[in-house]
Every structure is written in structure tokens, then in C-alpha cells.
Design goal:
Distance between the termini: 38 Å
Oligomer: single chain
Order of helices and strands: HEHEEHEHHHHHHH
CATH superfamily of the largest domain: Multidrug efflux transporter AcrB transmembrane domain
Amino acid sequence: MINIISKRYWFFLISAIVIVPGLISLIAFGLKPSTDFQPGSTVTISFSPQVEESALRQAMTSAGYPDATIQLASTGTSAGNYFVSLPQITSAQETTLMTDLQTSLNSTPTPSDFTTTSASVAAQTVRYAVIAVIVAAICIMVYIAWAFRKMPRPFRWGICAIIALLHDLLVVIGIFSILGWLLGIKIDALFITGVLTVAGYSVHDTIVVFDRIRENMLKGTNKDFEKTVDFSINETFVRSLNTSLTVLFVLFALFLLGGSTIHYFVLVLLIGVITGTYSSICNASALLVVWENNEWRRFISWIPGVSKNKKEEAKTV
């Protein structure tokens, strides 16, 4: 049997090492929003004859849109088309842009799916996205507390699941903040969809482990809560790992072969499944043990002032 719970503080340290750089990036740079979250326009353009992406970027700069985001669709019915995101423009400005591109590239552009997002709509989208995440977290916590109502202090189970969920979301959001800073990757509505999907997957995997802990507690497998948790994790370890691997294989294939429109959505899911599996096995149940053993002071001893107070209390005793 693998002794997982005894190494819980090492797992917490690994989580901190992954999360902290993302938090720093979020505070310093934030996330790069696409036109779904800020005023802007998007248009799909096909060219006859086909033009190179580098030539299109240069033509967009010459036309006065140096900050435009350009993606080439490499698969599916849209193969060869370019998805262009740029600051908010009118239909007349779009027509002028197409004329400029035709002159610069000596190729006939055919625009389609032209959409414009106003500032009010963008702000509303951001607000609804935040509300959706908060409501989902509250509903999950209440449901888990109800599902584990026969356990002592059931809200602990729900809170630990939410902490593990927040861990997974912070990992995903932090990584995308870093990618936005380094590579200019922007988040869109599909990113929010991916984050909510990760939240659901994370909680699902956590509940599998929690449910086994509950079963073993009711059976009286071991009176020591820590050993019961460790035994339960070992019982569900192979199942959780196999389930995650089958999902990862599919997502990896989609990441490599899927269209450009779902590329970053799949990346969100890839990161989320990996961190969700990790947090369910190494963090969520370990937090239950920390709470049960009243180890919170040790858990937060890295915070300035806490370790000092602990030493003073020891001297007093």
C-alpha cells in the first residue's frame, strides 16, 4: 500500500510551487481577453489564391491593425480560412479593410461570420462568467455537505472539495495568464466553458475518493481517520488514474488534430484533468486529515507571523 497521506505537506508544497507563479502573473499581467470579453470584432476570411499567414500579418499592420490576432484553420471545412480578431470596427471599415488586403496581397479576400462585441456586452459576459463560477462552487459545496450528511461535520467535506476545486481553477487560470504574457494567448467564451468543465470533473473525481472514505468509515475499517483515508485513496487510486488516462488520450488527440477554434479549449481540459486528478488524490483528502487532526497552524506556518506566534506559545508552555 502506498503511504500517500503521510506525505501530504510535500503535495501541498508541489501545489504551491505550481500555483504561486500563476498568481504572480495574474496580479502583474492578468489575463489577455479576446473580443468575447472586450469591445472588438471578429471575421473569417478566405483568400483566392491562398496567402501565407506572415504576409497577412504584415498586410494587417499596413492597414492599421497591428494588434490583430490571426489564426489559420488547418482542418475541417474551414481549412485554409483565417480567423481574425481586431479592435471594434464597423461594416464600412470592414469593406475598406478587405479592399486594402486585396491590394496588398494581390489576392481576393472573402469575409464571412463578421461579428462585433460592444463594451457593455463584453462587461456583461465577464460578469456572468464570474457569477457562474461562484454559483457552481456554492451549489457543489451544499450538495456535498448534503450527500455526506451522515458523516461528522459534513460541511468540512464540502469545503475541502471546494478548496481542491479552487486549486485546479487557479492552476488553469494561472497557466493561461503566463501563456498570455509569454505567447499572447487570449481567453474567450470557450475558456470559461473549459473552466466550468474542469470544475465538474475535479469535483467528480474528489467525490469518488470521498465516497470510499465514507464507506470505510461506516464499515469501521480502522478507527484511525488518517489510516482510513490512506486506505481509501489506495483503493480508488487505480480507478482514478485509469479514468483520467482514457480522458487524456482523447484530449491529446484533439489537441494535436482538432481545429484551431477548439485548440485552447482542449488545452484547458488537458491541464484541468491532470491537476484535477492530482488534487483529488493528493490534496482534497489530505485537507480532511489536516482538519481532523487540527493541523491548520502547521499548514499555514509559512505565513509571516504564524511561525513566530507558534514559537512564543511553545515557550509559554
